Target: Enoyl-CoA hydratase
Amino acid sequence: MTDAPLVRRHTDRAIEVLTLDSPHNRNALSAALIAELSAALDSADTDPRVRAVLITHTGGTFCAGADLKADGVGSGPKLLVELIRQIAELSKPVVARLNGHARAGGLGLLAACDIAVAGSAATFAFTEVRLGLAASVASIPVLAGTDPRAAARYLLTGEAFDTAEAVRIGLVTAWDESLDGILAGLRASSPQGLAATKEITTAALRQALAAEGDRLALRSRELFESAQAAEGVRAALERRNPPWAI
Model:
C-alpha cells in the first residue's frame, strides 16, 4: 500500500491541474510536497499536450508555509528557492487559484505564479515577522511583482488582509470569477508565443533569484536557528503570545 499523493494531477483541455492535497498540515511546504509539486511541474513542462498549469488546493488553506513539525528547518529555504526558480523558468504559464488562507512561504509560492486568482474566502499574511523570522525567500517573488510600499507594510506588520487588498497591491491578479476567461486566453495562445512572452514577464524575478536566492535562503536558515525564532515558533505551537508581543 502506497501513501496517498500530496499533489493530485489531472488535465482539463490542455490545462494541467495540480491540486495541493495535504489537509492534515494545511498544505504546508514539506520536502515531500515540494518534491511532488516539482515533479508534476517538470512533467507538465515536457508534455506537448499541456498549454499551462493551474495550481489549486483542497481544504480551507492554500498553503501554510514551511512544515516545521515534519521537517524542522533542514533544507526548506533552499527547496523553496528552487521551487520558485522552477516556476519562473517553466516554459508554460503557471496560474494559482485559491479560496482559502495563504501564509508565510505559501505567499512565496503564490507570488511566483504568473497569474493568481482568489475568492472571497482567501486571506493572506506574512506571519514570519511575528515569530522572530523574516519572509526572506518569499520576499523575492513578492517584491518582484507587488507594490513595494504595500509589501513593506505587510512584511513588517504580519497583518492579515483580504482578496480585495491582495488584488489592489498586485499580489493577486484578479478575483476568481476571472479564471475561466484567463484559461480560455491561455488555450487560445500558441505554445511558442506563451514561452517567449513568459521569458519577458519573468525577467525581473529570474534576475532577483540569481542575485539574492542563495543569500536569502541562508539568511532564512540562520533566523530559523536563532533563539528568538525558537521561542516564537514554540509560542505559536502553544497558541500563546511570544514575550515581545505587547
